[in-house]
Structures are given as C-alpha cells and as structure tokens.
Inverse folding.
C-alpha cells in the first residue's frame, strides 16, 4: 500500500466502538425516538379534533383528518417497536458488558492462583505439617515434665512431717497456757482511776435561785 493509501486508509478506518460509547448512542437514539412519539401524539390529537370539527359540516376534510390520524398512529406503532428493540439491545449490551467484566476478574483470579500454587508442592506441605505435629508433641512432653516435679517429693516422709506438725501445735498450746497464768496486782491497780483530790466547788447561784428564795419568803409572811 502506498503512503497516500495508508494515510487515507487511516482516515477512513472506523474507530473501535466501546461498550460505554454504544450505550451512549443507544441512549441518544432512545431520547430522539421518544420526542418523535410525543410529536406524533400531538398530531394524532389535532387530526381527531379536525375530524370532529368538520364531521357534520365538511365530510371531505373530516375523512382526510381521519386518514392522517391513521398514518400517524401507524408511525407511532413503528417507533414503539423500534424502542422495544433498542431496549432489548441495551439490556443485552449491559449483560454482555457485565459478563465480560466477570470473565476478566475470573481470568485474573485464576492466573493469580496458579502463580501462588506454582511455588508450593503438596508432598512438601504434608511433610511440613508432619514435622510441625512432631515438634508440637515433643514440646508438650517437655512442658508436662517440667510442670510436674513429682520426683522431688518422693523422698519426703509424710510421718515425719506429721510428727513435726504435732510438736508445733503442742508448743503453741503451751505458750497460750503461760499467757493465761496469774495476772500481777500492779497491772490491776494501774488500771484503776485516781481519786479526786480537790473538793467539789459550790454551785454558783443563778437568777432563778434568787427568784425562788424571794417567792418562799413571800409565801411564809
């Protein structure tokens, strides 16, 4: 192909249609057809009004209006069919786009799983798990041996311990008996309160005492 052919060929080459672009085209077409239907609906209403207006006065005009109404109704039905086709195409395109995205995700996920599993071997995994189980078993045995010092207590005589305990109890009882012995007299006398040294002072006279004395003198006179 010549240079000019390549240049003009590039110009005439159609751009690749994307899903988003196709959906936008469908939406634009749908909007245009809906507006077209609205316009035709108004024409149908006008034809009906014209036919009713001339139904009794001008039969020819009335029939012409009814024929136009039929044509408009047929156009309306055709547009309705196109809209149904567009709706179906839009739904199919959206589903296909979704399927494509799902397929892409599944493909990448499958590749990632293969890449991860590539570095692993089932037999090696089983060997590692067995080694872990054996190591865990040894660890449990060591822990049990350390936490159970039964060998340290086997050489202790329990009868000797009981005898020592009885001696301690006997010593404790003797000490308590000694504490309950004769109480010294000095300790008792020290606890008694001292006798008061000063004589009680005479109670000071109050105004009430003077009033009572005056009342008694008045009664005896």
């Amino acid at each position: 192909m010549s240079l000019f052919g390549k240049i003009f060929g590039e110009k005439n080459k159609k751009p690749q249609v994307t899903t988003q672009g196709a959906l936008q085209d469908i939406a634009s077409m749908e909007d245009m057809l809906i507006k077209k239907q609205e316009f035709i609906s108004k024409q149908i209403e006008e034809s009906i009004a014209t036919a009713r207006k001339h139904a009794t006065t001008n039969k020819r005009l009335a029939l012409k209006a009814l024929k136009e109404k039929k044509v408009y109704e047929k156009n309306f039905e055709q547009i309705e069919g196109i809209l149904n086709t567009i709706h179906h195409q839009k739904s199919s395109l959206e589903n296909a786009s979704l399927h494509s995205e799902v397929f892409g995700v599944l493909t990448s996920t499958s590749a990632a799983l293969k890449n991860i599993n590539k570095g692993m071997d089932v037999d090696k995994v089983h060997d590692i798990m067995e080694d872990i189980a054996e190591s865990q078993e040894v660890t449990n045995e060591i822990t049990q041996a350390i936490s159970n010092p039964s060998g340290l207590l086997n050489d202790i005589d329990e009868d000797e311990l009981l005898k020592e305990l009885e001696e301690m109890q006997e010593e404790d009882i003797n000490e308590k008996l000694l504490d309950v012995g004769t109480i010294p007299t000095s300790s008792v006398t020290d606890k008694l309160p001292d006798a008061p040294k000063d004589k009680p002072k005479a109670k000071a006279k109050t105004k009430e005492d003077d009033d009572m004395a005056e009342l008694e003198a008045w009664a005896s006179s």
